[in-house]
Amino acid sequence: MLELSNIDVYYGAIHALKNMNLKINPGEIVTLVGANGAGKSTTLKAISGIQKPKSGQINFNGKDISSMHAPDIVKLGISHIPEGRRIFSKMSVMENLEMGAYTRNDKVEIKKDYEKVFSLFPRLLERKEQMAGTLSGGEQQMLAIARGLMSRPKLLLLDEPSMGLAPIIVNEIFSIIENINKEGTTVLLVEQNAYMALNTADRAYIIRNGKIEIEGDAKEMLKDERVKTAYLEG
Fold first, then answer.
1. How far from 184 is each of 29, 56, 128, 227, CA to CA, in Å?
2. Sign for the pseudo-dihedral over CA of 6, 40, 102, 28
3. I need a surface site. Which of 45, 51, 125, 135 has the fewest CB within 10 A?
4. Could you give the domains of the chain?
5. Cα-flanking dihedrals φ and ψ of residue 210, to 5°?
6. Distance (Å, rounded) from C-alpha 42 to C-alpha 123?
7. SS3 of 160, please?
8. 27: left (phi over 0), alpha (psi -120 to 50) or beta
9. 142-159 in b/e burial notation, b at 16+ Cβ within 10 A?
């Protein structure tokens, strides 16, 4: 479904991604685990067209999207839920969801998707006329994911969905991610909570200093001493 081949990304003189190779198959949850500054968010930005790679190729369902603009990539079926939620705080919950569907004009299907996201996130239905900025942190994260789903993505890019949330809310968010995946959406998950990410994902990549160091079955990585020492202990 998605393949990154020899991707290099720079921020000025800083070489943020170095010869990055990554593959995602349809129906998977794949996680990208690493420390702050390792290149996790940059990987998602390269895929979604926010940060253009200097070299290499990104293919999505057989199409080279390396130089495409972000809105066109959304139309192809990739939705990016950024770190820090980035909801429209001065707009209502419903208006945020409407913005998520901005690339679509199939009104009947859009209405079905409102019902679908409200079934996934009942609290958003209760607060649909409320200003998004007045929601709790967990509710804002739910809204960010729901807004991303309104473009009806084939691939959902999730950047640090557990950041700043209480453990009970984190469990709820990860349960919802699994449900989204079971309903047919492929997921690429960036997450500092390595234990939760590896328990949720099918496969995993460990990134360090812009390079993929380890890749393989996510559950097996829970037993890998290198991963345990660097990301799971303490």
1. 11, 29, 25, 29
2. positive
3. 125
4. 2-77+153-232 (3.40.50.300), 88-151 (no CATH)
5. 80, 5
6. 31
7. coil
8. left
9. bbbbbbbbbbbbbbbbbb
Amino acid at 139: E
Burial of 131 per CB tally in 10 Å (0-12, 13-18, 19+): middle
Proportion of the chain above pLDDT 70, given as a percent = 99
CB of 211 within 8 A of CB of 205?
no
Of residues 181, 205, 180, 209, the one with CA closest to residue 191: 205
Q: What is the pLDDT of residue 8?
A: 97
Tell me the one-letter amino acid at 128.
K
List, as one string, the DSSP characters of 61-109.
TTEE-TT--HHHHHHHTEEEE-TT----TTSBHHHHHHHHTTT---HHH
- Decide if pLDDT at 213 tops 60: yes
| CB burial of residue 182 (10 Å; 0-12, 13-18, 19+) | exposed
Of 186, 226, 183, 213, the C-alpha closest to 202 is: 186
pLDDT recorded at residue 228: 86
Gap between the Cα atoms of 229 and 82, Å rounded: 28
157-180 tens-digit pLDDT: 999 988 888 888 889 889 999 999
Question: What local confidence, expressed as pLDDT, does residue 102 receive?
Answer: 86
Residue type (1 letter), 191: E
pLDDT tens for 219-230 read 999 998 888 888
- Vertex 205 angle, CA 200 and 206, to 5°: 110
- Cα separation, 2 vs 22, whole angstroms: 8
Query: What tokens does 190 get?
Result: 């960036």
